[in-house]
Design goal:
The chain is of the alpha/beta class and 326 residues long. The chain has twelve helices and ten strands. The chain has a single domain, classed as NADP-dependent oxidoreductase domain (TIM Barrel).
Length: 326
């Protein structure tokens, strides 16, 4: 396993981050395809065995159950100081409570305490805003996050899925007021969705922001031939299906090209797709989900795959502009 700094911070993270949205309680939240706790724990343990020290979750995953499962597993399988725990805040957590969502001072102060309770830890290493909140002034959000860091409840803060001008404004205001600065951006980025290359990635490179893309395999679409099989997730993942539905014709060409490169190499498609994203100099660590043992093995194996310039060109050449999708 390789370890690198997260942006300009001194925090060392593995070049593969285990995304934990798939772990929790299928009876809670919005995703019936998540694994229960007993089925989730082996993946967290195996990730640690492979040298992964970076784990990304969110308060809204299984409405808190995701944090609970991750927290218990890490307490059983690792020392707290040996792992980097990242969680997120923004989406609704309780019905009939208008303050149980968003990025207001009230919401952030409550939700960090709730996340810490569920994770069973005194602090998180990276506390991220899950989306931009159009209903809360960004300076209120930034000052609240600064307070969370100063209280010792988070070591660093990060952001996810917003427009470049929004992120620029947040960085500027933090610098202006002397508040804690975002050290990472978690964008939607993969071979099927490269719109972040227009502005966001160059902004992150210029500002020394760590980039930890979500859905690097496009919800599994880059891990197998085009619609080769339907899984329980692909059938019920309405968000993921809507995310890519409008670009299916163009995406199929990219997936077919990926399959050709992988076949010529004699390795799985997932390894090639992850090797491509790992080759982007601005990317710190893709956030990889795993619900089968091979998912983790492929992710780590991708670290050793070096694509040629010709292979990169073949993978990128058929891409066409996509509708902005966060």
């Amino acid at each position: 396993m390789d370890y690198v700094n997260l942006g300009r911070s001194g925090l060392k993270v593995s070049r593969i981050c285990l995304g934990c949205m798939s772990y929790g309680d299928p009876a809670r939240g919005h995703h019936a395809w998540v694994l229960n706790e007993a089925d989730s724990r082996p993946f967290i343990r195996r990730a640690l065995e492979l040298g992964i020290n970076f784990f990304d979750t969110a308060n809204m995953y299984s409405l808190g159950a995701g944090e609970e499962v991750l927290g218990r597993a890490l307490r059983d399988f690792a020392k707290r100081d040996d792992v980097v725990i990242a969680t997120k805040v923004y989406f609704p957590m309780r019905k009939d409570d208008p303050n149980a969502q968003g990025l207001s001072r009230k919401a952030i102060f409550r939700e960090i305490d709730e996340s810490l309770r569920r994770l069973g830890t005194d602090y998180v290493d990276l506390y991220q805003i899950h989306r931009w909140d159009p209903e809360t002034p960004i300076d209120e959000t930034l000052e609240a996050l600064h307070g969370v860091v100063k209280a010792g409840k988070a070591r660093y803060i990060g952001a996810s899925s917003m427009l470049a001008w929004q992120f620029t404004k947040a960085l500027y205001l933090a610098d202006l007021h002397g508040w804690t600065r975002f050290v990472s951006m978690q964008p939607h980025y993969n071979l099927l969705y490269r719109e972040e290359e227009r502005e966001m990635l160059d902004l992150c490179r210029s500002e020394g922001i760590g980039v930890i893309p979500w859905s690097p395999l496009a919800r599994g679409r880059l891990a197998r031939p085009w619609k080769a099989e339907e899984t329980g997730r692909t059938k019920s993942d309405h968000y993921g299906n809507n995310l890519y539905r409008v670009s299916e014709d163009a995406d199929r060409v990219v997936v077919d090209r990926l399959a050709e490169v992988a076949s010529a190499r004699g390795i799985p498609m997932a390894q090639v797709a992850l090797a491509w994203i790992l080759s982007r100099s601005v990317v710190t660590a893709p956030i990889v989900g795993a619900t089968k043992p091979v998912h983790l093995e492929d992710a780590v194996a991708a670290l050793s795959v070096r694509l040629t310039d010709d292979e990169v060109h073949r993978l990128e050449e058929p891409y066409i502009p996509h509708q902005i999708a966060h």
